[in-house]
């Protein structure tokens, strides 16, 4: 399977990156526009499913989706986040529809350059002139929180300068004050999340506002760079701390090919496998080894280099889990692989959930968890499945069942990462013994009694 960026998506990307729009901050205006965006997303997704994966979008449908993508990109905030997620996490949508939505991973209308310049001057003071002298005016990437400009520091170092969209934190607060928008977003991450809506919305709100703090992201990126300094495949761009602030993040220029470009080059199976292991290790292995969880695996957050390494960008969405949580999650994995329902319930209780005690509820829980961990239940090397099985998908939409589980808000990004990562690894075409790989990390965590710093 794959979502190859076609000519229409490429054209849309170029048009968005060449457009400037001031971010809408007014609560009433955002409410109205976000409502239109949510309705458009729902209509596009439903229409796509009704047509079926075998049929493409008609010309009128494609134009409507392109207009929707533009509207979501102008809004930034939750609306754009929702479009990003739907573009890569839902394998039931037609390829063309997902391809157009995937444009939002790296492209949307940019904040006007005078606003970017003002943001840099406020953040860096007199030193901003030195940075602006070597800064390219048009951004190379525009995401939901900020936009990235290529630049050259006074001594000649090439860098990527990420500047926060002016007012984006205010826009997020406005979005989350609208309960409907917040619950829609949570439900995109975990279908049926409305049953535990308060905890999920609060977790999403915390994470989204943390993503607006580039000083926090700088610390997280430096931590990952330190932990992976000796990794032969993964590369984390070095931070330039003298050119950073709460609204500005400057890192070494570390380019690479997008996932689309990488796949178009038809890499060997050996290379596909090595890259799949590297990404799986980064997004899943780091949880077991260090209690760190990067919760945003969409394809715009990494690139593939000619030297055989993969670069990971954007460390705004990172959660830290205590050793006890890591141990409970490793126990849950082993219980599911061993098909021991009582141990599954015990592990979920340790994670803060409230598993059912009746026979029917336990059977449903087993189905849900085996769908969640489905790619890990096959023995031997095999391609990754893009998502949970049909029965598990149906259970994820069973609000009464999910309400019984009382899942903590932190499960929001555990679910999001799993399903998003499965979809990406399926596209990559890696053939790996995923279950043995993760079980080894889980066993090592149990032997250590938690995680290592």
From TrEMBL:
Q: Which UniProt keywords apply?
A: ATP-binding, Nucleotide-binding, Transferase
Keyword Nucleotide-binding annotated:
yes
Which residue intervals define the domain ABC1 atypical kinase-like in the entry?
104-345
The record's InterPro entries line, in alphabetical order, gives: ABC1_dom, ADCK3_dom, Atypical_kinase_ADCK, Kinase-like_dom_sf
Q: Name one Pfam family in it.
A: ABC1
What GO terms are given for molecular function? ATP binding; transferase activity
What SUPFAM superfamilies does the annotation carry? Protein kinase-like (PK-like)
In the record, the note on similarity to other proteins reads: Belongs to the protein kinase superfamily. ADCK protein kinase family.
Q: What is this protein called?
A: ABC1 atypical kinase-like domain-containing protein
